[in-house]
UniProtKB/TrEMBL annotation, chain A:
InterPro entries: HDACs, His_deacetylse_dom, His_deacetylse_dom_sf, Ureohydrolase_dom_sf. This is Acetoin utilization deacetylase AcuC. SUPFAM superfamilies: Arginase/deacetylase. Belongs to the histone deacetylase family. Residues 78-278 form the Histone deacetylase domain. One of its GO terms (molecular function) is histone deacetylase activity. It comes from the Bacteria. GO terms for biological process: epigenetic regulation of gene expression. Pfam families: Hist_deacetyl. It comes from Desulfocicer vacuolatum DSM 3385.
Automatic annotation (TrEMBL), chain B:
Residues 178-458 form the Hydantoinase A/oxoprolinase domain. GO terms for molecular function: 5-oxoprolinase (ATP-hydrolyzing) activity. It comes from Desulfocicer vacuolatum DSM 3385. GO terms for cellular component: cytosol. GO terms for biological process: glutathione metabolic process. This is N-methylhydantoinase A/oxoprolinase/acetone carboxylase, beta subunit.
Amino acid sequence: MLKAAHKTGLVFFPAFDWAIDPTHPEREERLLYTQDQVTEEGIFDIEGILELKPDLINNQDIQRVHFCLPDEESITTESHLISAGGAVAIAQAVMEKRVKRGFALVRPPGHHAMRISHGGRGFCHINMEAIMVEYIRRHYDVKRVAIIDTDCHHGDGTNDIYWHDPDTLFISIHQDGRTLYPGSGFTGELGGPNALGSNLNIPLPPGTATQGYLYVLENTILPAIEAFKPDIIVNSAGQDNHYTDPLTNMKFCAQGYADLTRLLKPDIAVLEGGYAIEGALPYVNLGIIMALAGLDYSRVVEPNYNPEKLQQAPHVTEKIEKTVEIINAHWNNRHHLRESAGSPGDIQERHREIYYDTDNILERQQEKIRICRECGGTFQIESTAMPGSRVLAVHIPQYACHSCREKGYEMYDAAPKKKYDKVILQDKPQDRYVIKS
Amino acid sequence: MIIGLDVGGTHTDAVLLSKQGLERQIKVPTDTSNLFETVLTGFNHLLEDIPIGKIKRVVISTTLTTNAIVQKELNTVGTIVSSGPGIDPEWYRTDENYHAVEGSIDHRGREREPLNHKQILAIAKSMKEKDITTLGVIGKFSVRNPAHELEIRDLLKDQFDTIFLGHHVSGNLNFPRRIATVHLNAAVYEMHRDFFHAVKNSLEQKGLQIPIQILKADGGTMNLESSMSFPGQTILSGPAASVMGSIAYAPGDMDAMVLDIGGTTTDIAILVDKVPLLEPLGIRRGKYKSLIRSLKTHSRGIGGDSHVRVDGNTLKIGPERLGPAMAFGGPAPTPTDALVFLKKMNSGDQQLAQKGMENIAQALGNTPEAAARAIFKQTCTMILDQARDLVHRINSKPVYTVHEFLAGYAIEPQKILLLGGPASYFAQEIETLSGISTEVVPASAVANAIGAALARTTCEITLLADTEQKKAMAPEEDFTAPISHKFTEEDAVETTHELLLKKALKSGADTEDMAVEIIEYQQFNIVRNFSPRGKIFKVKMQVKPGLIKAYEAVCHHCTINPDIEKGI
Ligand SMILES: [Zn+2]
Ligand SMILES: [Zn+2]
């Protein structure tokens, strides 16, 4: 009888009644054919595969990650709360050892949602993986987390949220930002001064095939994970690298996704993008589920799969090998990079503009971070959104040192209330989120 | 007058009901080696001195199929499956006559790979050489497009006596269960046919001209003719019969739990506003999983004859049954011994029961009285825990829309109905422990036969309409029709309703007993490259399980006959 080698939990929440708008790629129909395939295969009848029910997350769960503006209710729908709740349900089952691994097949996605969220970017409003990771850091004994984002778009939201966190290894592989939304994620983006090297961004040229993905996995991602020694591995499992995806230009396939999953061995996978809803998603999701469960997936092949058409061009291979060399050099040099990033106690500034394509908002940020060798470093962000609000947001990291905790309150107290619509303090060590009144 | 007959594993119950109430009731031992004789004996007793013309309805529930599975007396049949991409179909091998062939249909019902006739004919030839006359044909996604199954049938129809097709058994997706269900239908078909033809003939000889109805696992009936296509649906009709027998006493607008406490097991079911809950996909019992429509009944190893012992310092009850209670000559203490010892039950040997309680008391270091009370209380607690566990599992079933998630109806039983031999002894304690109003179903010992007699004909239909592909189909009924892009929700519901009524009448339903409901409705826009291409509609509708109108009131005249209430 068919039996999963690894007990695997699945949350399936296709949100069959929720869409950004009726013809948007992020619409009701997106997981319909995946559900049909998974149901017809009898996946939930397999011994060792458990279907779990998502729970709603609450505002406090969101506030551990985001500054939502003007507030949580305005930029989320129930669907977001259930989707994040699906990721949390999987994480709980994994942490409580009810399952060995899990996969949250949920929508809407979240990996483009940044720490400050004024609305929708790249179909995302709040970040499912980050909310889940911060939930388990709060409720279970987990500190070091590796998040591997294999969506074809740069996971710029997750990248932003963990930019200053040396305890989170965030790696994104994606189609080169010069050829695809959101246009970021280049090799030099390595994290903030206190966390340099804990963000690795690996752009891949259009036309990257299975061979290229597995090359990056084996030569950069897996060695980095091994050196980082995470307590858990999270996979942002976007499926838009598929050769039939309408939004991207890659040559990845269901077998490739399953191989990647088998080698990466994520504890928790969370569905992100993927818009070839008929030709790719049913097979890719089936492949990922079976690989997670340790089942033989060799017959999970797209009906129109033609390996000859999915060959990787030599110049693509060459480009990937060069990128891997660059990334590995940064990674091996990470301790030195942090040492030379500034003197402890100094404040470093960064200015950015962020465009919210889904909701058509432009945001300007001015960020100030305390250089620290002992923790991720407290920072404040002054954010102005057009249209939208002007806020000052202060973040004290989860494992903040004494000086950074004090610095956080200093920043918060010093902020003139009159100048902003809101002054907010996210005090992670105390699990507090306070708005100046 | 109507007749209900339930052939159980150990005994057979039969009732004769008139509009005035229970006219006759009998209980005879079941002869598992000759169920036909058992059924005939039942009828002979019931019909003695009754003018045959007065009998308007006969419903039979049997363990024929269950017995055949347990005793491994299934017929040898051939199985041909085509799967396409996905899980290796070799995992679902039924026996050595199982063959996976080329050919593939995808999730939208489009052909992805054609069948290979040469391959199929070669397989048929090998089966003929083994004298196989019954064949099952199952394709992955055949409920989205049955073309391949029909093509194989047409190719082989002259070479086999009977061919069962996957898309007929259910509109639900689940390829492995479809294989298991078709295989069961095919493997019990000859036995089922021979048995019921024999029953029909002998009833006809008695002058009974009305069609026979057969009880299904979903608590509804089907006529003999329909049963020939789906004989597997008769499996586990016994527990369904008991649940149907309790429905008349369930409150409306409220959730109720039905606990059928037997010697070995307690069967648990849930009623919502007098309608029993169904399994979402079909029967599952341990490793066996099917698409056979079924009431959601959970059988747990705790009952009057459960083995009681002390392990370390803890009292253990069940799940095994070593034999009858010591008070009735059994080998080990049981909850029934506790009942006898505590004088809650007046039959049985007091001294033997006391001996059993002394055994337990010694191991626990207390008095036989304390031991008996502990056993009694723990038995009731365990039964309630199992019932609560079922409610919890039903309530934590995942849903797939924001609306359902937020609406999230949760079962909250406000009434407990007890059935089975020891039920009356447990009622008060169960009510005290649960805080839920508890009632013993009248005539509880033959409630199963009454349930069978009064069950209405049920059926289900699934319609799938795809305006991009311009067709509507209901695979179970081999229905396909062209539709236009203007096809609407109302059209979908109306088409499904028509098909359902037709199917129900064909299965023997009475027009006044069509309690119809939509059990699933989904609608999707098909969008490609940001422009709408059409719509997909999915409608599932059923005639829900319940009691026939004409006789529903009868139950309130059914009283307990002390003659058959004795013994467990
Ligand atoms: Zn993407
Ligand atoms: Zn610090």
